[in-house]
Specification:
With about 350 residues, this protein is α/β, with parallel strands linked by helices. The chain has 13 helices and eight strands. The site of nicotinate mononucleotide has 19 residues, from strand 1, helix 4 and helix 12.
């Protein structure tokens, strides 16, 4: 019987998840989303989950509380150390401008397709000769395609309705061609939200709604707020991430947190990550012994002056100078939606922003 089940599992269509977000800092709930989603598909017996990817957004997204991409990537690497299937992709942060989520999905999907279609050992290398660190290990165990789905919390789904934030065509492409896996979040009503959207209703079969029966409303905003007040965040985030925050003095962490005299050994690797990336950004010299997700990018140099289109900005006069990133639009507009009492989850977020 178990041999039969194993055989059946081998035949299941393969999927992977990618979560796009700020991860400033990463919280256990960011990682729980992956576990909850994998459990769901495995228990349904419909798909084989081969990997999970965390893709932090570009610095020019400019959302309030966004630590530098170097620090966010280093923290994600620390947070996923305990996982054998969730990986960091720093492709997005190494682009010279903010990337829309549809493009992020497309890039990773194309990379996996090319990798699977190329002969083993050929055509699968990055320019520096190594494979990207986010690529699932078991990809070449089979030849069939792996379908990449966007994994998110219900608040991200609801941000589709923020006027001018997402491009309609992108939403359609994401749900029609990639698929969405949505984890419920307190105060959100994703079923109703889907019902109220024609596009989402049209592609409902590609949207997997998963109830999180053990909700935890920890958010990066809450963690940042506690840190800046000198309050404890222990057990709210990974110890390694907390150590990193203290050492790097991120998020206005109050002095009580920065008295550790000893540099913990487990952070050395990630300091290598940030140090190497910083050096690379300054010197344009590549690093050795690092996979793609560790790779420095000369484009980091351009970030200080990078330009972005604000969401929904179709001005023929070209991109605006980066003063306001798309992430700031989220805050401004969600404050308006608070006035309209749209959702409890949004209200909570806004309250955090306003304090
Ligand atoms: N507690 C949670 N429950 C379910 N999903 C979550 C939770 N926290 C974050 N997510 C999801 O994780 C993804 C990345 O989140 P992101 O870092 O952008 O937001 P966040 O943790 O809510 O941060 P912030 O508080 O800065 O807005 C999003 O899809 C978001 O919906
Ligand atoms: O692609 C888009 O148009 C788009 C519009 C708004 C937000 N996003 C992405 O959504 C992610 C979460 O954003 P936020 O503001 O909810 O933390 C982050 O990775 C953004 O780049 C993407």
């Amino acid at each position: 019987m178990s041999a039969f089940m194993e055989e059946t599992k081998c035949l299941l269509p393969r999927i992977a998840f990618i979560a796009c977000g700020c991860f400033s800092p990463p919280t256990p709930m960011h990682l729980r989303m992956f576990e909850i989603a994998r459990d769901h598909f495995e228990m349904q017996g419909t798909h084989k989950v081969v990997g999970g990817i965390i893709s932090p957004t570009h610095d020019s997204y400019a959302k309030k509380g966004l630590a530098s991409s170097l620090d966010r990537c280093a923290m994600v690497k620390l947070a996923v150390q305990s996982s054998n299937w969730i990986r960091l992709s720093d492709w997005e942060v190494h682009q010279n401008q903010w990337m829309r989520t549809q493009s992020v999905l497309q890039y990773h999907q194309n990379f996996m397709n090319n990798y699977l279609n190329s002969a083993a050992g050929a055509g699968d290398a990055e320019p520096n000769g190594s494979l990207p660190g986010w690529l699932p290990f078991s990809l070449r165990e089979r030849k069939d395609p792996v379908h990449l789905k966007l994994l998110c919390g219900a608040d991200l789904l609801e941000s589709f309705a923020v006027p001018g934030l997402w491009a309609e065509a992108d939403i359609e492409d994401i749900v029609a061609n990639h698929g969405l896996v949505v984890i419920t979040r307190c105060g959100s009503n994703p079923e109703k939200f889907i019902f109220e959207s024609d596009i989402l209703t049209k592609y409902k079969r590609n949207i997997t709604l998963i109830t999180n029966w053990v909700p935890n409303e920890v958010s990066s905003t809450l963690v940042r707020r506690l840190l800046s007040r000198g309050q404890s965040v222990k057990y709210l985030i990974d110890d390694l991430v907390l150590e990193y925050i203290k050492r790097q003095r991120l998020f206005n962490v109050k002095s009580k947190y920065i008295t550790d005299a000893v540099r913990p050994n487990h952070l050395i690797f990630n300091h290598a990550y940030t140090d190497n990336n910083k050096n690379a950004a300054n010197s344009l010299i590549g690093e050795q012994n690092m996979d793609e997700s560790d790779s420095p990018s000369p484009q980091l140099l351009q970030q200080a002056t990078s330009r972005v289109f604000c969401c929904g900005d179709t001005s023929p006069r070209g991109p605006k100078l980066l003063r306001v990133g798309p992430g700031q639009a989220v805050q401004v507009i969600t404050m308006q939606s608070d006035e309209k009492a749209e959702s409890q989850a949004k209200k909570q977020k806004i309250a955090q922003v306003q304090l």
